């Protein structure tokens, strides 16, 4: 493309959460020389065409550093001034429900919401957030598993949470027609050494417990529902019995429930 006279802007990001890139990226136009994760995002030290800039990015995860450099390249390539492009980084916001910074508590603890609802996704989000936890602080994970879905993943997700988080909070996701208590017990069957496994039941109560336990520098990831603003549960009559269709199957309904909204409500009281 350069041979055709087309301007090419190259970029390179850190190979891991702490180190600067080595010689392989020295010739790139845009380079993250250092990434310093913290509870509320990350500090990026960027070389742009040989000039250094230090910026605060209010988004978590090493992959976001790559996204930021790509966006910078696109902005500069479309004639946005460098200073203006750099300034825009501090105003970034996460995609709702995707490593979304839902709240920062008065203690400085941070709460993220993510859609991770499979073993691989939970593994990835916990590994992504671990570098953002202070040396003397803890990574908390709160999640559940959906009903009427793959039951084999439940203990696996319990094991992954126990291995990668310091404190684990097991709660309800979308129980649908299954017994919520039975689902939680299946998740808990995969845990043996968790620092703090709480069979907290209803999701709002579990969120209250988890947020109340956070200390300065802690990070809590609330996984499973992400951007969803509802919870799917069995529809019951006035006596509490499930309402069934003509074939005897329990009917379900959606009730309003947004992790991010409820987290902010609870955070405002702490």
Q: What attributes characterize this protein structure?
A:
270 residues, alpha/beta, 6-stranded mixed sheet
State the total count of DSSP E strands: 12
DSSP helix fraction? 25-40%
Uncertain residue ranges: 16-24
Please state how the strands of the largest beta sheet are arranged side by side.
5-6-10-7-8-9
The biggest beta sheet is recorded as:
6 strands, mixed
Q: Find the structural class using helix and strand composition.
A: alpha/beta
Give the helix tally: 7
End-to-end distance: 56 Å
Shape: elongated
Which range does the strand content fall in? 15-25%
> Please, what is the average pLDDT?
91
- Taken in chain order, the helices and strands follow as EEEEHHEEHEHEHEHEEEH
Q: Could you characterize the architecture of this molecule?
A:
This protein has 270 residues and is α/β, with parallel strands linked by helices. The protein has seven helices and twelve strands. A hairpin with a 2-residue loop joins β2 and β3. The longest helix is centred in the first third of the chain and has 16 residues. The protein starts with 10 loop residues before the first strand and ends with a helix. About 3% of the residues have low confidence.
Itemize the secondary structure elements and their pairings:
Layout lengths: L10 E2 L17 E9 L2 E8 L2 E7 L4 H16 L4 H8 L10 E5 L5 E5 L4 H11 L9 E5 L9 H12 L2 E4 L9 H9 L8 E3 L3 H11 L5 E5 L6 E5 L17 E5 L2 H9 L3
Parallel strand pairs: 1-2, 6-10, 7-8, 7-10, 8-9
Antiparallel strand pairs: 2-3, 3-4, 5-6, 11-12
């Amino acid at each position: 493309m350069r041979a055709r006279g087309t301007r090419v802007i190259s970029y390179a990001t850190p190979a891991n959460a702490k180190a600067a890139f080595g010689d392989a990226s020295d010739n790139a136009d845009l380079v993250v020389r250092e990434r310093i994760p913290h509870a509320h995002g990350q500090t990026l030290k960027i070389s742009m065409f040989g000039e250094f800039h230090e910026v605060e990015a209010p988004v978590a995860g090493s992959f976001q550093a790559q996204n930021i450099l790509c966006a910078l390249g696109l902005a500069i390539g479309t004639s946005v001034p460098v200073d203006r492009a750099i300034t825009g980084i501090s105003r970034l916001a996460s995609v709702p429900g995707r490593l979304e910074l839902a709240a920062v508590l008065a203690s400085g603890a941070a709460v993220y919401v993510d859609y991770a609802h499979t073993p691989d996704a939970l593994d990835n989000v916990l590994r992504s957030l671990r570098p953002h936890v202070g040396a003397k602080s803890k990574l908390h994970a709160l999640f559940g598993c959906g009903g009427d879905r793959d039951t084999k993943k439940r203990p696996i997700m319990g094991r992954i949470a126990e291995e990668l988080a310091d404190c684990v909070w097991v709660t309800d996701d979308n129980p649908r027609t299954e017994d919520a208590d039975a689902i939680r017990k299946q998740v808990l069957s995969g845990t043996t050494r968790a620092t703090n496994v709480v069979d907290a039941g209803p999701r709002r109560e579990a969120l209250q417990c988890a947020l109340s336990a956070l200390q300065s520098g802690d990070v809590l990831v609330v996984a499973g529902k992400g951007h969803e603003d509802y919870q799917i549960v069995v529809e019951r009559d006035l006596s509490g019995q499930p309402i069934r269709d003509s074939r005897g199957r329990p009917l379900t309904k959606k009730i309003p429930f947004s992790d991010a909204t409820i987290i902010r409500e609870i955070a405002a009281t702490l």
